[in-house]
Amino acid sequence: MRFTSVRRAPRANLTGFNPKDLAAASGAPANDPWARREAWRYSGPFTRWNRFRGSFPGLGIATVAFAAYCGYEYMFLKDDHGSHSDPHH
């Protein structure tokens, strides 16, 4: 079964009020009394990057430790179960 989209004309606005025009005309307030109190949320230790970085504590150390263990296992821990050179098996 194939879905099709139905395109309709925009509905007529009975009141004549357009919220998009109002938002564009109003713009930002000239003097926002709360701007200074809200600025700390987006600066210093609370920037977007710092909040993301703190989301996964220990991930970098764990990744390095896992890679080091995989390298150690590959280099030094050889599996001898497949070799037929040992006659006393």
Write a structural description.
The protein starts with 18 loop residues before the first helix and ends in a 13-residue tail after the last helix. The model has no long low-confidence stretch (mean pLDDT 81). It is mainly α and 89 residues long. The chain is elongated and about 95 Å long. It has a domain at 35-76. Helices cover 40% and strands 0% of the residues. The chain crosses the membrane at residues 56-77. It is found in: Mitochondrion inner membrane.
Mean pLDDT: 81
The N- to C-terminal Cα distance equals: 63 Å
**Count of helical stretches:** 4
Query: pLDDT under 50 segments (min length 5)?
Result: none
Regarding quaternary structure, what we see is single chain
- Determine the fraction of residues in helical runs and give it as a percent range: 40-55%
Subcellular location: Mitochondrion inner membrane
Family: Belongs to the complex I NDUFB3 subunit family.
InterPro entries: NDUFB3 (IPR012576)
Membrane topology: Single-pass membrane protein
